[in-house]
Amino acid sequence: MAKIVWIVGASSGIGRALALEMARDGWTVAASARRGEQLDELAAEGPDGAIKSYPVDATDESACAETAAAIEEQVGPIACAVFAAGTHIPQPLDDFKVEDFRKLLDINVGGVVNGIAAVLPGFKERKAGHLVVVSSVAGYRGLPQASGYGATKAALINLTESLKFDLDHIGVKTQVVCPGFVRTPLTDKNPFPMPFLMEVEDAAQAMYRGMKSSAFEVTFPKRFAYILKALGLLPDWLYFKLVHKGTGL
Ligand SMILES: NC(=O)c1ccc[n+]([C@@H]2O[C@H](COP(=O)([O-])OP(=O)(O)OC[C@H]3O[C@@H](n4cnc5c(N)ncnc54)[C@H](OP(=O)(O)O)[C@@H]3O)[C@@H](O)[C@H]2O)c1
User: CA spacing 20 to 30 A to 68: which of 81, 97, 118, 179?
Assistant: First the structure.
C-alpha cells in the first residue's frame, strides 16, 4: 500500500516534527490542524511535494469526514492516521471552570473521535490501516492541577485499548502514544521545571521508531514513563504522598 499518513495536529510541536520525520522517510503526509498558514510553511519545509496541507478543525465532525475523503480522493488511501491534536488548560482549584473542561474534552477526545470516525470506513473496506492516538503519561493516574487534561488523556488510553479489540479483527494496527515532557508550544506555558524534558525532534524520532514496532503503547522518554508507571502501581496512600512531595503541589 502507498505510504500515505494523515496527521491531525501537524501545525506545531510533536505532530509537525513527526510530519517532517515521516516525509523524509518516504511518506506522503496529509497535514491537518486549524492554522493553514503553518501547514503551508510545513509543506514548504518538507521534501518536494511530500507534505500536503489539509486545514481542518478537529472538533468539526463533518469537516473531518470531508477532509479524510478529500485526502483519499486527491492523494490516495490513508494507510496511517495519527491523531495528535490536543491542548492543555491547568485546573487549579481557584480557577476551576466547566467551560475549560468542555474545551479540553471537545478537542482532546472529541477531535480524536471525529478523526477515527473519518478513517474507519476506509480501514474497514481495505481491512488494513494503522491508527495512532496521542495520549500522555498524564493519563496514567491523576496529577495535581491536571484534572481536565489528565481525564482526557486517560479517556484516550482506554478508548484506544477498547478499539484495539475490534481493529485487531480487521487487520488494523492500533497504538497509543504516551509522551512525557516534550518542548513544544504546549509545554512552553508550564511554569514548573519539567523532568526529563525532551526536544521535539528527538520525540518525533522516538515516536516514529515506536510506530514501526509491534508495541501497543509507544512512550518516551522511557525513563520518565517507567517512573510514572511504577508510581502508578503503588498503593493510593503512597502514590498521593510521593506525588505531593515530588511536585510540591
Ligand atoms: N508536549 C508534551 O510534553 C506532551 C506530552 C504528552 C502528550 N502531549 C500531547 O501531544 C499532542 C501534541 O502536543 P504538542 O505538545 O505538540 O502541542 P502543540 O505544539 O500545541 O500542538 C498541538 C497541535 O494540535 C492542533 N490542534 C489544537 N486544537 C485543534 C483543533 N481544534 N483542530 C485541529 N487541530 C488542533 C494545533 O494546531 P492548530 O492550533 O493550528 O489547530 C497543533 O498542531 C497533544 O495531544 C498533547 O496533549 C504532549
Answer: 179
